[in-house]
Design brief:
The protein is α/β, with parallel strands linked by helices. The protein folds into 2 domains: 243 residues, Type I PLP-dependent aspartate aminotransferase-like (Major domain) (Aspartate Aminotransferase, domain 2, 3-Layer(aba) Sandwich), CATH 3.40.640.10; 101 residues, Aspartate Aminotransferase, domain 1, CATH 3.90.1150. The chain is built from 9 helices and 14 strands. The strands form 4 sheets. Strands 2-10-9-8-5-3-4 form a 7-stranded mixed β-sheet. The longest helix is centred in the C-terminal third of the chain and has 21 residues. It starts with a strand and ends with a helix.
């Protein structure tokens, strides 16, 4: 079996050990006589899978007891609406910090439900997103219901190096492409949400971590399925959840535990990112547009000195088993997403290929 190094931004690589375990358990799980895909979500077997997954995630992230962990559907994009629906709580304003494309989309949805104060727009001057603001640059409102930001922008590769201080106003984070990449202090957030298809598991699942005191007061006419309280009271089983995606996420959480947890993962991720950025910066052939102190560990965009070579680069990279390196259509160039499941040898192989390609075409 030949597997490539998949640098896709999502759906992304899964740990090989997880895929192999899922393969072994595909037809029959733990003496049940059936696949996980065939189980009732309310049956004893599946409930044990779901409960262990949540317990392992709580352990890996050190999630405080006063937070609910929800396993939902609809992708992170549904949270663009669910957050204001659940967190406005009688107020009519929310603050948004914008450092990339996903922050812009979150604002567009939030404006359906409230007044949005753009506390910072990193594209205001240049029209491009290449940095994250300093704390002192944020124009926060004293009367906002919450403050929303995207710690890591998947498309532009811009990352915050700090947690914004909001003076007691609930902080909401779209962590889709950075969750589980390193330890974080969950208690600094009101809500953390993340689509699964980057660092958690396959597409179809969304994890929401929400502080209990923020649950229970939704805007009028909120659909039942968009109410955090409904999902919390029903242990994410109000309707049939994406059972197989939840199961695979549980295998990933177990893999993280066995690999030394998030401290160990952070060491590996930083080392991978440092190698790739060093290769880019040490070359006159490749370039990264992001300010060095705001560069993502997870998503590394880069351009070639001659854009006419882009197609050749991608073709030859694919021949070398380095795939899905084409940059997002909105920014062009290349993008290497190096999430947890990307082994260090994958980054080494990419760096080696880039050096050889430059030598032959520079």
């Amino acid at each position: 079996m030949a597997r490539v190094f998949n640098f896709s931004a999502g759906p992304a690589m899964l740990p090989q050990a997880v895929i192999e375990q899922a393969q072994q358990e595909l037809l029959e799980w733990n003496g049940s006589g059936m696949s996980v895909m065939e189980m009732s979500h309310r049956g004893k077997d599946y409930m044990s899978i779901a409960e262990k997954a949540e317990a392992d995630l709580r352990e890996v992230m050190n999630i405080p007891a006063n937070y609910k962990v929800l396993f939902l559907q609809g992708g992170a994009s549904s949270q663009f609406a669910m957050v204001p629906m659940n967190l406005l709580r009688g107020k009519d304003k929310a603050d948004y910090i914008v450092t990339g494309s996903w922050g812009k989309k979150a604002i567009a949805e939030a404006r359906r439900y409230c007044n949005v104060n753009v506390a910072f727009d990193a594209s205001a001057d240049s029209g491009k997103f290449t940095f994250a603001p300093a704390q002192g640059d944020l124009k926060l409102s004293a009367d906002a219901a919450y403050v929303h930001y995207t710690p890591n922008e998947t498309i532009e590769g811009v990352e915050f190096t700090y947690v914004p201080e909001t003076n007691g106003i609930p902080l909401v984070a779209d962590m889709s492409s950075t969750i589980l990449s390193r330890p974080i202090d969950v208690s600094k957030y009101g809500v953390i949400y993340a689509g699964a298809q980057k660092n958690i598991g396959p597409a179809g699942l969304t994890v929401v971590i929400v502080r209990e005191d923020l649950i229970g007061e939704v805007v009028e006419h909120t659909p039942t399925m968009f109410n955090y309280e409904i999902h919390a009271k029903n242990d994410s089983m109000y309707n049939t959840p994406p059972t197989y995606s939840w199961y695979l996420a549980g295998l990933v959480f177990e893999w993280l535990k066995q690999g030394g947890g998030l401290d160990k993962m952070a060491e590996t991720n930083k080392r991978k990112a440092d190698k790739l950025y060093a290769a880019i910066d040490g070359s006159g052939f490749y370039a990264n547009p992001v300010a060095p102190d705001c560069r993502s560990w997870m998503n590394v965009p880069f351009t070639l000195a001659n854009p006419e070579l882009d197609a050749l680069f991608l073709d030859e990279a694919k021949e070398a088993d380095l795939v899905t390196l084409k940059g997002h259509r909105s920014v062009g160039g290349m993008r290497a997403s190096i999430y947890n499941a990307m082994p260090e040898e994958g980054v080494d192989a990419l760096v080696s290929f880039m050096a050889d390609f430059e030598k032959r075409n520079g």
